[in-house]
Each structure stands twice: as C-alpha cells, then as structure tokens.
Amino acid sequence: MTNPTCNEKATQIFMELSPYFQGLGDPIRQQIVALLIDKESMNVTQIAEHIPMSRPTVSHHLKILRQAGLVNVQKKGTEMFYRLEITEAIRLFKQLVTFVEEECN
Fold first, then answer.
1. Is 89 within 8 Å of 57 (Cβ atoms)?
2. Which domains does the chain have, with CATH numbers?
3. In whole angstroms, what is the distance from residue 94 CA to residue 77 CA?
4. What is residue 13's predicted lDDT score, i.e. its pLDDT?
5. Is 36:45 a contact under the CB 8 Å cutoff?
6. End-to-end Cα spacing for the chain
7. CA 48/CA 28 separation, integer angstroms
8. Phi (first) and psi of residue 86, to 5 degrees
9. DSSP label at 75?
10. What is the band of 5 on the pLDDT scale with cuts at 50, 70, 90?
11. Cα–Cα distance for residue pair 66/98, rounded to 1 Å
12. Segment 36-92, tens digit of pLDDT
C-alpha cells in the first residue's frame, strides 16, 4: 500500500504538470507540438500548411500552447515565430516518474 506522503507528493507534481496536460489535451495541439519538435521555429502560416485547420484556428491553439508554457513566441519583423519550449515540462515529467519509481513502490 502506498503511503500518504507518496500520494501527497505525487499529487503536488501532477498539479504542477496540470497546465501542460491541459495544453496537450487536444489532438490539434499535439500535432502542432509534434511539428515543432523538428523545427527551430515556425510562423502561423507555416504551421497551418501542415495542420488541416485555418490560420485563425491554428492561432487559437498556439495561444493555448503559449498559456500552457509549451511554446514561446518571438517577433521577427512583422511575423510571429513559435518554437517549442518543453524543458520545464520534461523536467517535471521526469521528476514524477523518478519519484513514483523510487518512493511509491
């Protein structure tokens, strides 16, 4: 049986991960993240060429990914370029897995 301390700590890490789960909770946003894995950065038009959605819809999903902390944006001239920013999410996922493996068995 798992001890209460283990449950509390795992729950705390899950709560920290919650924005990332919410950001990744849609198949379109998952496609965008998968697309950005292979690219340094892309603008909305470039992303929309690969995703079967309109530019406004892609922009909406990029906004959610930004709010979740999964992408960041950089303005170059008049264009906004999006790039994946998953370092913190990966750190928290690793922390959760390590904690559960080492402390909750």
1. no
2. 4-103 (1.10.10.10)
3. 37
4. 92
5. no
6. 8
7. 11
8. -115, 10
9. E
10. confident
11. 27
12. 998 889 999 999 999 989 999 999 999 999 999 999 999 999 999 999 999 999 999
